[in-house]
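Sample 1 of the test manifest.
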Amino acid sequence: MNGNGNLRVGLYICHCGTNIAGTIDVKAVAAWGETLPGVVVSREYKYMCSDPGQQLIVDDVREQHLNRIVVASCSPLLHEQTFRGATAKAGLNPFFFHMVNVREHDSWVHEDKQAATEKAKDLIRAAVRRVAFHKPLEKKRVPIHPDVLIVGGGIAGIHAALTLANAGKHVYLVEREPTIGGHMAKFDKTFPTLDCAACILTPKMTAVKKHPNITLWTLSDVTQIEGYVGNFTVTVKRHPRYIIEDLCVGCLECIEACVYKQAKYPDEFNLGLGKRKPIYIPFPQAVPQLPVIDRETCIEFKSGRCKKTCVEVCGDRKAIDFKQQESTETINVGSVILATGFQVFDARRLPYYGYGKFPNVYTSLEAERLINAAGPTQGEVILRDGRKPKTVGILHCIGSRDENTNRWCSRVCCMYSLKLAHLIKEHTGAEIFNFYIDIRTPGKGFEEFYQRLLNEGVHFIRGKGAEINTWPLDPSEEGKLIIRVEDTLIGKIRRIPVDMVVLSVGLEPHADAGDVRRLFNISCSSEGWFLERHPKLAPVNTFTDGIFLAGCCQGPKDIPDSVAQAGAAAAESLALIDSKFVELEPNTAYILEEACSGCKTCIPLCPYSAISFVEAKKKAEINEALCKGCGTCVAACPSGSIRQNLFEDEEIFEEIKGVLAHA
Amino acid sequence: MPEAKPETPAVGPKRFEPRIVAFFCNWCTYLAADLAGTSRMKYAPNMRVIRTMCSGRVDPQFVLDAFAHGADGVLIGGCHPGDCHYQEGNYKALRRVHLLKRLLREMGIEEERFRLEWISAAEADRLKTAVNDMVEKVRALGPLRLETTAEFFPEEVKVA
Amino acid sequence: MTDKPKVAFYWCASCGGCEEAVVDLAEGVLNVVAAVDIAFWPVALDFKRRDVEAMADGALLASFVNGAIRTTEQEEMAHLLRHKSQVLVAFGSCAQLGGIPGLANLSSRDEIFQTVYKEAPSTVNPEGALPKSLHRDNGDCVSLPGFYETVRALNQVVDVDYYIPGCPPTPKIIQQAVEALLSGKAPEKGSVLAPDRALCDECPRKDTRPEKLTLTAFKRPQEILIDAEKCLLAQGVVCLGPATRGGCEALCTRGNMPCTGCFGPTSRVRDFGAKALSATASIIDSNDEKQIDQILDTLPDPVGLFYRYSLPASLLRRKKLPEQPATKGCAPKAG
């Protein structure tokens, strides 16, 4: 037993109610467990993770002088720490414990009770054999850097930043657009209360800018992150705005003074529905309150021969700098909150709805801008052909709940469609038709809002819009967009001619979400949303310690949910920071110095440069602080001179023998 | 460590039940197996998972040792290329697996008995498919019985 | 006869190089001869098997057995010497690990017989006769040892006390081992009597290996003009020095040839070939499957490369036979 004296194993099999015991014959397994060499106590218990369950371990260690503990229950991800704690409480080194996953990996995935029971025995036998070789280990304690990086300046990022900053922590808020605010800044009203998005958002945006604890970097990307929980080193690339932030007072006279008297270029913030100049501010309440120069359209950048009236009007402030270069900032933070949001579904992917072909087909986000008083039409719903719509069709589930595009429900579309129906009706008095598969209103005040719309005389046709065309069958359809739909309530194909169509596009992960995920070393669901550590119990954590999620990057959600999640992420981050130290798993690799031949095979394999060659000794050396415990060097060391705590060769060989020993 | 009582395999004599030893990385494939559990997916009960932190930790010795101790198949599960929690441990695994496959071919061990699968934490379905597929393919091949191939045959040699 | 301790030397499936190695001790062999009585050494002295059979159990202080176990006779002799010896030493790569003869485990016995007795261009055997372990002709009875399906290392047949590695063991290694055994300061049973560090430790080229060496092609020694000073791996030549136990004083790399692994693995490794393979594959400089395969194409015959001396002692032990012949006799216990 690896020099640890007499092996005395305590083996505990958890019923987990019926989760395990319903499939695995836990009593038989416990009885069988007593026959395993080294096992002194073998018990089954209803809930091992409960206090009395843990107390069993503590009592048995004291009374039976156990020196190793094996618990067969759920995934180690859930309760490894719990049982290590119980082992420690009993006075043993917590690493004299090993956990067997007989729930997620066995009882929940098999129906054949006998086969599942045999599998549990194999896995337990492997663990009992393995645990004999466990060594006492200590967790390494590393101080946590109190600063926090937040990526994405939408409502989730803003809320998390303010929460942390108000708690006295320094926050770096990095946003790639010229302004923070995200999607919410584009909305007119918010459902179901119909309060004005700008009225509730812009004060928070301003607070971010003013907050002494927040460093706000717009037009910036995180390009690199190294380190581990508590100690990340982050590289941020700051793209030039061509405006010197410290010198600009935000008077915006330069925009007025631009050689272009009229705005000429499509305005991104208004989704191309309005125009802007080469020097512009995305929207009047943008934060930071600074103009930005678009080098693609600015004459000075294109020809170098502009009169530079903007520079003239800026005068002594000299805030415009055409030579501004990209810069790089390196910061140290202890935790990261990802709040990178979503993108809306591109309706062009479904050509039968005519988006991009028929000018009066809009996306819902465009509709938000059209009805927004600060939008391109000052809140008047005027179509691209200058008319006011008399009839409007709103098609739900465009790019949601669709086998051909995205299968998920985007959660917010029903409610925002109802909101748009209400607002368009309010603005234009038009007759409104909603085309829906199901109306989903599970939220506080949502169903009531739906009832309100029904009472307002908005039409609801149950059926997903099939096609938009412009082929009239009779004079009343002349010049109209004709929505073809199967009305599933009356079982008929219908044609509804309208003046304006709004496509309620779904939410999907950013096109570059995969890159962000790789950068931060986290996982994605198969749809591409960032994956939370546990769907119920750790919804804002990721599998990478110290990296948290907020808002729609984790999945579609509305504003209150985003804000709640942002608060949760901030709280998790605060809890981490206030714990002052992080305990790292001691699963690091180490070199048997006497045995190392200095062959250098391991050195290029370490992605963290934790292995160096010490010339004086002509041997390799591992810097424990840099080692993250992947074990790649251990597998490669040709003379077996590198080992890994918790994953020693002997331990794994014993597991192999253990799972196969029943033959 | 011989055990007190010899055990009989649970499965009946009707059908050969292959024994698959799997080495899953902690961050992707092990989690996919957890997700398969929480999603109550059902797959063949022939696999026994051994957890390593990274597929890069899987020493070719482990694979051979599993075969030598009676495994009919060995499955390594790691993160997709580019997604390794440790940046590129899975690429190290990939290189070793490619060479090991050549070696196993030379040793007469059928290709279907040794697999490397990239399965992310979200791909429970892929895990299920991979396990079921491997179990069926190995079942079709029959037992590997390496321990008996090492037996020797001192009986008289017949004249051809 | 004096009271000097008695020792025996015996050869099984081997090339004779290990016997040469004993003779190569030169003056050193005289010291050995002076210290012991050689009671059995078929290659040099005229003692017979029956002489050994007549000895009391444990009468021999030590037996040095080289060669792998291929035939029934070799197995019988291994058992006989085990009984008669206080200490049984596996001498050389073949006895320790199976050695070069162990590569025959890539073929079945039938394939070997077909090739050797029928298909080889130099064979004339119109009747297609194959050796038989018992042949009767006109009342005469001729016997030959039985030929096993699988080659084994000595410790897969009998209990072995010590191992002297090498193909063949070097004089220095032999001398040190014999001295250790005679001095009574014998190391722990089961030890390999050589340093437990890999060869790089004593290789004169060690310092020339770059810290971060990765390769896009492997070279065979005959394909390049080998630089006499530089680390062979750095020149793309597969050198198994990093995986191989030292103690030979880097004879091959000093002779401008790569280490092929005859001293076997260190005590920390269970399967030499697997570890050598792992280290070699790890330094491939590509993450692309196709490119990796192209690079691996420059490594023909991985078994021959990584298990040149150790196939029978490997975890897989032999190539899987296409079908299981009817088994007779006892199966060897798993190593």
